[in-house]
Write a sequence for this structure.
């Protein structure tokens, strides 16, 4: 950003001490509030003090892109005109380019609101150094920094769970979603033992019965889990079961996060679709299987196919015919994006038009 400057000269002085401070960039989507005013008053006081004390001084202003929030605001403006961002060009590439241009256009308008407020407050920033976190120069530095950190082994790249919004077709921060309780059903599904019936509680059973409120994610199951101190299942640890509807076998594992009193005391582990399951999968080396593509659709075959999971919520036990799958009332917690609307009769996370 260059060197700080000495008071009244506009140029740095070689033998003077330096004081430089960067404004924590406010989100370009909003306007400054009392918190910003208090914060900036302190920074302005410090900057003016050091400037008058003879320091080479600079206070660097800037704004942050707030990516998803910005996209939402611009999309709502387009929707008010009956326009979708996907229809802004003859090809997806052209539509994206035109949409990005629209975002930049809006950024100039909203960003000016914030800087105008700062000017009215009398902030003694160096306006010649004003930055935006999406400026080409800054974006390039961020990319270079992350690549360098990766090459030095200080950061790693791996699969992580995200909150995926099927409408925005983008990941959403944990801070931008809320957890709500929804009424639903507890589904009991039997996973047949690979090597034939086994004794459970003195009764010969053809498979392990699990309890779940999310049966549509079973295509991505990586294991069944029981509590390590549950005497009913200790002798079954390490055995394989057949995954219904799929030509796959998965192991039975033990993990103390399983609640022995909940349902059957046996749960399915779907590492790529639940944060608790993800942690369990990491502990046991269970593979992460993503059964939904970017449009948030289930596979285009079988009884669970459908967009955004809507056809993937079984409406009756007939889907699991022969799997001894009764349904009972239950409540479960799901995340959703605030302001996205609710559909109490569709507890599938990706089934909400505005859900996550």
């Amino acid at each position: 950003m260059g060197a700080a400057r000495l008071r009244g000269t506009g140029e740095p002085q070689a033998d003077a001490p330096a004081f430089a401070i960067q404004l924590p960039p406010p989100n370009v989507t909003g306007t400054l509030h009392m918190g910003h005013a208090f914060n900036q008053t302190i920074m302005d006081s410090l900057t003016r003090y050091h400037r008058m004390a003879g320091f080479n001084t600079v206070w660097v202003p800037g704004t942050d892109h707030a990516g998803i929030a910005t996209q939402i605001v611009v999309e709502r403006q387009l929707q008010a005109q009956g326009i979708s961002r996907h229809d802004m060009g003859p090809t997806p590439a052209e539509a994206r380019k035109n949409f990005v241009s629209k975002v930049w256009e809006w950024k100039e308008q909203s960003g000016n609101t914030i800087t105008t407020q700062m000017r009215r407050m009398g902030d003694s920033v160096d306006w010649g150094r004003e930055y935006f976190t999406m400026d080409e120069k800054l974006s390039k530095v961020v990319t270079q920094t992350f690549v360098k950190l990766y090459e030095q082994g200080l950061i790693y790249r791996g699969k992580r769970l995200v909150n995926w919004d099927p409408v925005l077709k983008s990941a959403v921060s944990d801070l931008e979603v809320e957890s709500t309780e929804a009424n639903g059903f507890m589904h009991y599904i039997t996973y047949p033992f690979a090597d034939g019936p086994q004794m459970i509680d003195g009764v010969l059973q053809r498979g392990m019965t699990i309890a779940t409120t999310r049966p549509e994610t079973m295509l991505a199951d990586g294991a069944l889990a029981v509590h390590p101190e549950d005497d009913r299942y200790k002798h079954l640890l390490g055995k394989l079961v057949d995954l219904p509807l799929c030509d796959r076998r998965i192991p039975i594992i033990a993990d103390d996060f399983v609640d022995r009193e909940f349902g059957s005391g046996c749960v399915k582990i779907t590492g790529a679709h639940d944060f608790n399951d993800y942690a369990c999968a990491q502990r046991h080396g269970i593979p992460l299987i993503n059964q939904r593509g970017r449009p948030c659709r289930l596979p285009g075959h079988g009884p669970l196919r459908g967009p955004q999971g809507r056809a993937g919520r079984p409406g009756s036990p007939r889907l699991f015919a022969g799997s001894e799958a009764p349904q009972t009332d239950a409540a479960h917690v799901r995340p959703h994006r605030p302001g996205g609307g609710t559909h109490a009769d569709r507890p599938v996370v990706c089934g909400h038009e505005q859900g996550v």
